[in-house]
Amino acid sequence: MTVIGIVGLPGSGKSEAANVAAEMGVPVVTMGDVIREECRDRGLDPASDHGTVAKALREENGPAAIAERSLPMIEAELEANDTVLVDGIRSDVEVEAFESAFGDAFLLVEIDAPFELRADRLDIRGRDASADDGGESLEDRDARELGFGMGEAMEMADLTIENTETLAAFQRKIRTLIRDGPEGIDQ
């Protein structure tokens, strides 16, 4: 059993890593989906209210709230699969929740990319509302994520994958990680 947790700032490549895992038949639990569902339950737009609801969930239910809501989904996937990828860890408290639940079977992987490259990717993706459209700027998103404890979570990573090359090169790294484990990744 292996639970691969992915952590990284917006636009670093977390969703792309999840896409590669899914293409390989590895189930993906996306923590952001928990927040998007809560947005809809509260009658709010996930594109513009994601950050507000993420913060509210943590304030209302504690800093590990989103991880705790994700645990049953991960455990259900592990009943039929050897590996599960968890997309979108945001804090050291969430890392600790997963380490407590899965012990040595939990592998935390940081995806890293420079600010300008991340900004370009987010513009292309177009999933989130920009600051001009009532959403958050990337600077504000980074600050919010880091405020949750993401910097501490990234420091806890067992492995860092730089995502500064081509999409194909990054996809190869993720396939290697899933197939061969962290030992297969060139550092």
UniProtKB/TrEMBL annotation:
InterPro entries: P-loop_NTPase. Pfam families: AAA_17 (PF13207). It comes from the Archaea. Gene3D superfamilies: P-loop containing nucleotide triphosphate hydrolases. This is Uncharacterized protein.
